[in-house]
Every structure is written in C-alpha cells, then in structure tokens.
Specification:
Layout: H1 5-14, H2 26-41, H3 50-62, E1 68-69, E2 76-80, E3 93-99, H4 126-145, E4 153-158, H5 168-173, E5 180-193, E6 197-199, E7 202-203, E8 207-216, E9 220-221, H6 231-247, E10 257-265, E11 271-272, E12 275-284, H7 287-307, E13 311-320, E14 324-325, H8 327-341, E15 346-348, H9 359-362, E16 367-375, H10 395-410
Parallel strand pairs: 3-4, 3-5, 5-16, 6-15
Antiparallel strand pairs: 1-2, 2-4, 6-16, 7-14, 8-12, 8-13, 9-11, 10-12
C-alpha cells in the first residue's frame, strides 16, 4: 500500500473500512484542524489548562454531551452511550485518553497558528491528542444516538502530563476510571509517517524519576584540601561513579540509567565550597527494576559520598512507571487500524526511554498506547518531540479519530 495519506484513505475502503460507520466527513475534518490550531495558538502549562478545558467542554456540549470538569478545575471526562436508554449501558466503558497540557519552551515555527504565548508551545503533540479524542467523541455521539455504538465510551482529557509524577494520578483519584474496562491512547511520533501506526506489546516507554542531591561539608582553602571535604571532587565522583556502581548491581537488560542534567558548586577558584548540588533523571525499561531503583540509588550515593567525606541529602521524586501495553488491547488497535487503512499501515515500534504518565492508568486497567505517525510522507528530516519547531502532518488527526472510532465499534469486552 502507498504510504501517502490520500492513497491510504482509498486503500481503507478496500481493506474493510467502508463496512464500519464513523468515517469523517470533510466538514468535520476541517473543523478539527481548526480546533487543533486554536489549541496550538493558546498553549497552557500543566494544571493551568483553563482555556483548553473550556474549549473542549463547549464543543462537546454543542454535540449534546455532558462533560464533567475535574475537581482541579482543569481537565474533564465525558461519557457516551451510558444512562437510561444508552447502548451498552451495563457494559464496562472503553476509555479514550488525551493529555491537554503544553511545554514551557518557545514556539520557533513560522506558521500562522504558532503559539501566541511567549515561552509556551505544544511541542509534544498534546493538542493533536486532544483534538483526536474530541473528534472521536463527536463521531461516537452520533453513533450512540443512532443506536450503533456497541459499548459505552469515556473520554478522558487529562491535565499536567508533563509535570512529574503526572496528572494521571489525580484523574484516577477523582474516579475517572470507575467502570472503565480498558484504556487506549495515542502519542504523536515524528519518526513515523502520517497514515501509519506503531504498536508494541509490553513496555513501550520507560520509567522516569527525578533525582536531586545536595552535598554538605565544612569548606576550606584550596591550598589545604586534606583538612576539609573536597566538595568539587565529591560531586564529580558522585556524578561519575554512581551510574557505574548501579550498572554493576542490576541486570543490564533492565536498562536502568542515571543521567545528570545539572551540577553546581563553588564561587571562587581558591575556595573549597561547603555545598554542591546535582540533579538528573533515573530512567528504567523494566517495571520490576523501577520499583527497586530508589533504594539502589540511595545506597550508591551514600557510599560514594561517604568515601569522600561529604554528607548527602537525597530527594528522589517518583515519576512514572513504564507504559506496559496489554496484548489484547494492542490487538484491538491493530484490528481497528487494519479495518480503516489496511494491515500494511501498522508497523512495529521500539521501546523508548521517554516517560509517559498513561502508565498509571495501566496499573489499574488493561490498555495500550500506540504511536501515531505525524511525519509528512516522504519527509526525510526527523524533527523530535520537545523542540520549538515541532509540528505535525494534520492528516494524522483523521487517522487518530477513525482509529478510536473503529476500536470502540470492534471492542466487545
């Protein structure tokens, strides 16, 4: 099958997509593109997504739905096909999750929908995720009214995905998973062409924690380091030796990596400082290893610091576990994508070292996250996420909406 998105639309009709209701009309495609661009112009950071929440709520209410804003005032949930007379009202809900927050980086693109907020940008594709779930909700609402939705669906618009340990925990605490039997999500992938989907059973992301270390010592003169604690050397040895120590205490296949992003100490060339600070991340590919990581990291820092006479204070901030995709949910996404665009549109994807708080949902219910292609077909450049020039081929919005719609129609659990 051609990898061009327009050709993929035609191929879907011959691959079984025509037998499934819910294909997007041109007017809705245009509306969703405009909706995404509006979000892109007005990015909001985690737990500050008030305008975004209001925009989602207004559009869903116009479709006759009853979204409920989360207790924090940002984010919302919305059920479709439940209640009196709702199709599948006694069945577990299928959850469709979108994250709605942006990043604290400037938008450097020269497009008419670039961010209007200085130092803020949708550089991770959350505006696309949000638009896809809104679009799926509009299509599924029409199907529910026509009695063609086989099971109820819950739309989950989650704030603060970019803020460790992620907004998912608050969403779950608010009861958003009550009655949900499965959760699905997509994440933009600039390495995959628009019109294609990357899938993987098992872990698809890594765990990600934040690590902060403060070291203390008496300080002194650089002429007499033997009379004090050489804080610069102590900090440097922790930065170098702790990752090495940990690498010998855990199975290398767990992929546990301590990486420092900041180190600060000292004010003068001839003064041994009294304090030093290091901060970085702990990433891990394996769920069980992630659960043992804090104790292991603490022990390694204590040992290296003691060797150099420094007193450490460690702040280990739990972030997110790996997203571990459940096999049945992966198969559902594959079947849905194949029904729309042919099995050739599905490809394997690798586990990344990025963190994603969708993992917290999968600690409670089965589910899966797919990688949604957003690269223009034929484009050779590989713009990464979390860059100010990040953008997407907006035809991916239609792909995501039809993927979720087909999944809701095919899922029978």
């Amino acid at each position: 099958m051609s990898r061009d998105t327009d050709d993929a639309d035609a191929a879907a009709d011959t691959a079984g997509g025509a037998s499934l209701p819910g294909t997007l009309p041109e007017a809705l495609r245009a509306e969703l593109t405009a909706f995404r661009r509006d979000l892109h112009r007005h990015p909001e950071l985690g737990n500050q997504e008030f305008r975004t929440t209001a925009a989602i709520k207004e559009r869903l209410e116009r479709a006759g739905l009853r979204p409920r804003v989360l207790p924090s005032g940002t984010g919302l949930v919305c059920d479709i096909g439940t209640g009196a007379g709702g199709s599948g009202s006694d069945m577990p809900l299928l959850g469709l999750r979108a994250d709605i927050d942006a990043l604290p980086i400037p938008d450097t693109k020269t497009v008419d929908y670039a961010s209007t907020v200085p130092g803020r940008a949708h550089a991770c594709g959350h505006d696309v995720h949000t638009t896809i779930v809104v679009g799926a909700g509009l299509v599924l609402a029409d199907l529910a009214r026509a009695g063609a939705l086989p099971r109820p669906v819950r739309l989950v618009f989650q704030p603060a995905e970019e803020v460790l340990p992620g907004g998912a925990a608050d969403v779950i605490a608010s009861g958003a998973l009550d009655g949900v039997g499965r959760m699905l999500a997509v994440h933009c992938d600039p390495r995959v062409d628009a019109g294609r989907l990357g899938l993987r059973t098992g872990a698809i992301t890594s765990a990600c924690d934040r690590l902060e270390v403060e070291l203390a010592g008496p300080g002194g003169h650089t002429a007499r380091p033997h009379l004090t604690t050489d804080m610069v050397t102590a900090a440097a040895r922790i930065a170098l030796d702790v990752p090495a120590v940990i690498s010998r205490r855990i199975d290398a296949r767990a992929g546990l990596a301590v990486t420092w992003g900041r180190m600060r100490t000292g004010h003068a060339c001839n003064v041994i400082p009294q304090h030093a600070e290091l901060s970085g991340t702990v990433r891990c590919l394996d769920l069980d290893a992630w659960r043992t990581a804090p104790d292991m990291v603490h022990a390694a820092i204590d040992e290296v610091a003691a060797l150099h006479g420094a007193k450490p204070q460690i702040n280990y901030v739990r972030g997110v576990p790996p997203v571990v995709n459940e096999a049945t949910s992966v198969q559902l996404l594959q079947d849905a994508m194949a029904a729309r665009r042919g099995i050739e549109s599905v490809e394997d994807t690798e586990q990344s070292l990025g963190g994603e708080d969708f993992s917290w949902y999968l600690e409670h219910v089965p589910g899966a996250m797919a990688r949604l292609g957003v690269r223009p077909p034929g484009e050779l450049s590989r713009l990464d996420l979390h860059r100010g020039d990040f953008d997407v081929d907006e035809r991916a919005i239609q792909v995501g909406v039809e993927l979720f719609t087909a999944a809701a129609l095919l899922d029978r659990i």
